[in-house]
Design goal:
The protein has about 50 residues and is of the alpha+beta class. The chain has one helix spanning about 30-49, and strands at about 5, 10-15. The longest helix has 21 residues, at about 30-49.
Length: about 50
């Protein structure tokens, strides 16, 4: 069994996804940080008005 990366942080088995395949799925922590960040941006914009 041979493993190789596609340059996007995805590990492919036998180069099956080295041609682009599906985009990587963000981890739950990404959304956990995105939501409060957007809330802070909205708060700043609202406060400036």
């Amino acid at each position: 069994m041979a493993f190789a990366g596609n340059g996007n942080g995805t590990i492919c088995e036998n180069l099956a996804c080295a041609d682009g395949g599906l985009p990587p799925i963000p981890e739950a922590g990404t959304y956990a940080l995105l939501r409060p960040g957007l809330g802070v941006i909205a708060w700043v914009v609202r406060r400036r008005r």
